[in-house]
Amino acid sequence: MHTLLLLIIPIVFMVIVLFLKGKTAGYVALTSSILSLVVSIIVAIHLHFNGYFDEFNHTWISSFGINFHVGIDGISLILVLLTTFLTPFIILTSLQKETEDSSVFYALVLLMQAGMLGAFTAMDSFLFYVSYEVALIPIYFICGLWGGENRIAVTFKFFIYTLAGSLFMLVSIIYLYLQTPGNHTFEISEFYKLNLSLTQQTLIFWGFFLAFAVKIPIFPFHSWQPSAYTTAPTAGTMLLAGIMLKMGLYGLIRFVLPIAPEAVAYWNTLAIILCVCGIIYGSVIAIRQNDLKTLIAFSSLAHVGLIAAGIFSMNTQGIQGAMIQMFNHGVNAVALFFLIDLLERRSGTRLMDLFGGIASENKKIAVVFAIVMLGSVGLPLTNGFVGEFLLLMGIYQWNMYAAMFAGLTIILGAVYMLRLYRNVFFGEISEASRSISSMTMMETIMSFKMIALIIVLGIFPNLLLNLSAPAVTKLLNLIANHSTLNATL
Amino acid sequence: MNAVIALTITGILNLFGSIFNYRKITPLLSIFGLAAAVVFNSLERNTNQSFFHHMMLMDNYAVAFGAVCMLLAAVLIIFYNRFMGDDDHHLPEVLSIIVFSVAGAIVMVSFTNLLLLFLGVEILSISFYILAGLKKKDLGSNEAAMKYFLMGSFSTGFLLFGIALIYGATASFDLSEIAAFVKLKSAITNYILICGVLMILVGLLFKVAAAPFHFWTPDVYQGAPTIITAFFATVGKIASFAAFYRLFQICFAPISTEWSGAIMIVAVITMFIGNITALQQKSLKRMLAYSSIAHAGYMLLALLSPAYIGASAILFYSIAYGLSSMSAFIIIHIIQTQTRTDEAIGFTGLAQKNKTLAFIAAISMLSLSGIPLTAGFFGKFYLFSSAIEGGYVLLVCLAVVNSFISIYYYFKPVIESYFKKSHTDTIIQLKSTETVLLILLSIATIILGILPGLVPSI
């Protein structure tokens, strides 16, 4: 029942927010997101200590065997927590400045939260598909209405790209539905039991891969991403980079691995090569960026490429690494975008050239930025390290050379992030940097929240790893059984 | 059956409107007649009665499609009164033509005899030829009527020729007897029969505006008064499809190997031509005309799917398409009359001028493009899954490609109304009844998107 509550809270508050005006709308939205956070923590405690699997199942469209079936297992939980942790933070960031038509804005943010939570908790593939698309509509309007330069074209490209990919997923889902025995069903757990030939699995694999590869994005499908991240308003970028792209990664773990394991084993060489290309490509381009937001966008491309490669390596380390890194990447990306927004609000620019020497004037911002940056680069004792370490270990088990190239992400990551830090915070103090006043009380509190997460998760990664471990083990057993079953047939 | 009688009486009463001077109340009278017909129609649910010596059968299929056509026509009449009412001296006659054409539509969805199919098609088509030319001083409207008439009667010729050939082969007009004949093994080598089936196919493909028989559609849709275009695109198309599906599933399913290949190719061509040409259109009316061609392509998929699922799929799709297409055309008409342009520019800044209208327009466009939580999405989902069940995975993939091509043009008005600021300050006004009706249409679209189980399967 808690899961249902998680979905209902944002929707109910969304309706309320629509009738409010100005900052009140924002504060009500904030209340809603904090309520969700509390509920999700209760779910986490239940699951962890009592092993209690929270679910809700109700017939939705009986003639099609579609159920409104939501539930939270270990894999879902990490992403649900990520969503509920970041949404209040994102709303708080938006509250730092005036937003036009704020009621619509916050209502859309809440709708987006509901859609993403729906996708992360869906146990029915039809519900997953619907939530996956429902999350897309609000972000389209958020980027289109409050975005920056050239927003119409950029947002539309992003929208069409994502929708195009996901339609192939729909075909795959319908195909799987028709393979289920008896009265067909869309239940995901029923899909796991199917015995599909390699050809069937290959088709399913590519159908899902197209959808998720666009969303994540994996290398040749990424062209919407940098411009969309740059153009979107800060809250939109945070939602996109922090949470939304995880829907693609989550989909890989939830659908592709257990439903088409042989096809993954057959095609993962290609998939991992694409991911590694993305890692190097994103990092190299990030080195040459001048706009801070674009730089983080490309670095994000590199980071999620690594996560996807870890998932495709199909072993415990890879998948557990992916789980924890999904959370950490969300935290780090959102923290970075928060800091960039903070700089932009004060100086009116995001261009690296125009900054310089902030550290000599404003120590607090410099220190906060440094910690977040180190977390993003993956320094030991920060959260980024644990995830990247596990991911690289997983990839290494699959193939040493792939891990070597994927490992470049750490070196190249240090190059572009340190370059950014040097240009923005050290050197001669520039005109734009002089206008940067110190952090307000609220911003300080928000920064500390993020820094605390970065350091605590760096020192005690088990907090998250233990939550997802049983579910990941179960998943891998499922895959192993599937393969032996097919081998004996 | 009683519905047809009620409609005919309403039509005749309307005709007397000019003579006995009660033309002012004819719109009310028509709506009342349609409402009565809907009631009579729904009373016949689950009765499976046949009439006129087994020439018509009111099964649930006929009842469902009949209700859809009548309700859409009622919506149309409410708006027609507002848009054409004041300066239209032939209001009673036009209304009676509309009502008669709905009677034709009901015959088309309930026939069990080829003669009645022909009769229904003719009642509907002849009314349409007249309606297309309503604006008699407008060159476009005249062109539309002329083109529609010439092409339409030509295609009816094909239909009739096909019926004659089938009669020659089977010695019957009755669907059950033809079906019994077709089930025989010898049917597959009976070339007269197969020629007849293909002729009927051509005739009906013309009526549903499938490529390559679609060339009349854009001109007719653009030339006719917008409100009439809405009628063609919804009631006309739905009735023709219902007749098409009824004939081919009841009668010709056993020899589907002979015609399914043709349908498949036509479906692919129709989807691509409709969608790709719609991308280029400046006039939104013309764009919707091409999009309706594309929708015909999707609906053809239902003919290829197994019988037990195809009928429900096509019914749901018709309802979804009817609702959103109707409101899209009505909104375009409103914008066109108030901004003097039927291009997307007319929508610029609509969200500031009239929030409700912008929202309704957005919902109908989202539904037409098949975004989840609207009826249009579930309609597509239904059609696609029934076609995959029939084994046409590749065809569905092509349909999927088409449905994201279509997003590009359906989003044009949405982008204009929400993301751009208007340069003029013309105010877009609506009467409260129309607002309520349009809101009801979009609420229905959303509710059917969330709870598609509300539409019973047939």
Largest sheet of chain B: 2 strands, antiparallel
The shape of chain A, in one word, is globular
Task: Decide which structural class fits the backbone of chain B.
Answer: mainly alpha
Q: Over all CA atoms, what is the radius of gyration of chain B?
A: 21 Å
Number of domains of chain A: 2
Mean pLDDT of chain B: 89
Quickly count the domains of chain B: 1
Q: Biggest interface, and residues per chain?
A: A-B, 28 and 28 residues
**What is the chain-wise order of helices and strands of chain B?**
HHEEHHHHHHHHHHHHHHHH
> What is the SS-derived class of chain A?
mainly alpha
Number of strands of chain B: 2
Distance between the termini of chain A: 40 Å
What's the helical proportion of residues of chain B?
Answer: over 70%
Which strand order spans the largest sheet of chain B, edge to edge or round the barrel? Answer: 1-2
Structure overview:
The complex is a heterodimer of chains A (489) and B (458). In chain A, a hairpin with a 4-residue loop joins strand 1 (54-61) and strand 2 (66-72). Chain A folds into two domains: 1-258, no CATH class; 260-489, no CATH class. Chain A has a two-stranded antiparallel ribbon. The longest helix of chain A is centred in the C-terminal third of the chain and has 32 residues, at 316-347. Chain A is mainly α. The model of chain A has no long low-confidence stretch (mean pLDDT 89). Chain A has 21 helices and two strands. With 458 residues, chain B is mainly alpha-helical. Chain B has one domain. Chain B has 18 helices and two strands. Chain B has helices spanning 2-15, 26-43, 60-84, 91-110, 114-132, 139-170, 175-183, 191-207, 216-223, 226-250, 256-280, 284-304, 307-339, 350-353, 355-369, 375-389, 393-419, 432-450; strands at 49-51, 56-58. In chain B, a hairpin with a 4-residue loop joins strand 1 and strand 2 (56-58). Chain B is globular. The two termini of chain B are 19 Å apart. Classes of the chains: A mainly alpha (489), B mainly alpha (458). Chain A binds chain B through residues 60-64, 129-130, 133-134, 137, 141, 144-145, 151-152, 156, 159-160, 163-164, 167-168, 170-171, 174-175, 177-178, and chain B through 312, 366, 371-373, 377, 381, 384-385, 388-389, 393, 396-397, 400, 403-404, 407-408, 411, 415, 418-420, 451-453, 457.
